[in-house]
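Hello again, I could really use a second opinion on something today. I've been staring at a protein lately and its backbone has me curious. You're getting the sequence in one-letter code plus the fold written as tokens. I'd be grateful if you could look everything over and explain what you see. No rush at all, and the record is pasted right below:
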Amino acid sequence: MPLINEEMAALMDDEPQAIEDAQPRSKKVIPALTRSREQSAEPAPEPIKIAEFREFGKGSGAMLFGKAAEVVADALRVEQHTTNSDRPRPYVKLTAEQVAAAVPVLEEQGWEVRQKNAEITLHGKSASVRGDAAVAIANEFGFALGATTTGIAKVKFDQGKLEEVIGFLKDQKFVVEVDQAEPSETNNKKPVVVFRESLDSDDYKVFDTSAENLAKALGKEPDRTPGGRAMMEVTAKERKQIVRDLGDQLDTSVKPMPEAKLTLYAMGGGNVIGAAATEVAAALNLETESVTRKADGATFPKVTLKEDQIEAATSALEGLFTIKTEELEPKAFIKTDKEKQEIVVVGAAAPFAATAKGVDLSMGNKSPYVRLPESDLEFVKSVLKEAGFNEFDISESKPLQRSSQASASRSQRQAAEPEL
């Protein structure tokens, strides 16, 4: 998350976050009404409480000011700051994950949340969206999810879907802005085409925007990978001819095949993140989820694999990526809850803890888990060490304080199904 101090926060706090923060304006004195009119007068409506998140950048987190910040600081137990200005105001700095958690908390207390921005850029007959909005519409409409050169999630789609996409984003409470790409963005630079060296032949493959650029220059339609990404294949001879004939129109280069990282869990299963996750999900008919890189807030698709899916996932990546495999050391995740005086062992360590204590194992959306008394912590750690777990991640569970009926079921589900 970008470094932001109190003075910078004061600059970002350029307008009140909530109408109820402002002082009432009363400049005209109205003569007293008769008693009958006083009795029939309607009470003044409640002021609208608006909580507006000020984003640092796409998917990088946001700041929240005023009384809304106090509400979120208390509910999420995050540090509260004060702006260094003539009108000091409380504020909080939130990660993208914390923003998502803060929204339902505020809505339940009557706040109108204005938070997520979606900038749609029009290019000719297509449109593109970046950041969290790109992930949302990729999942909703099945668009291929790519990434910018800096790693920010990006989706490109036909403008025929524009109204439908805008409607969906507004339903998801995104503030939508539509802009036309500047001429310098589309006309002054040569289209980039990156030829990727095949691993098992002298041929080349071209992916994503590069494939679309090459197809357009050749007057063809690009092929599609199983994950929906644009792709073209050319021989070494064809590449030389393209460079010779279209070198003045295209910015061409040759690079190695892109890398896909297959992470293997020590106790079975694994995951793939990035464009490779889209390919694996399509080949194995799995759902992707979104993960955010803490360093810069960039958002990527991720697919989680079971042990018996690893081989099929590897096959799906062959020919499209250079596959790098990393095996994680056994790590036990344990959540502690001081209020309930219990611990929750999550993930691969859970079956060992459940067996040792002779209790049933529960299954969440993604991981198995088991709840045990807090007094069993040291016993569980000794059991897990014998089972081969060399590292422990023990953290305190901090449930959100939610009260409305609308989120009760979700809160109960999250409490019953802890995730990593």
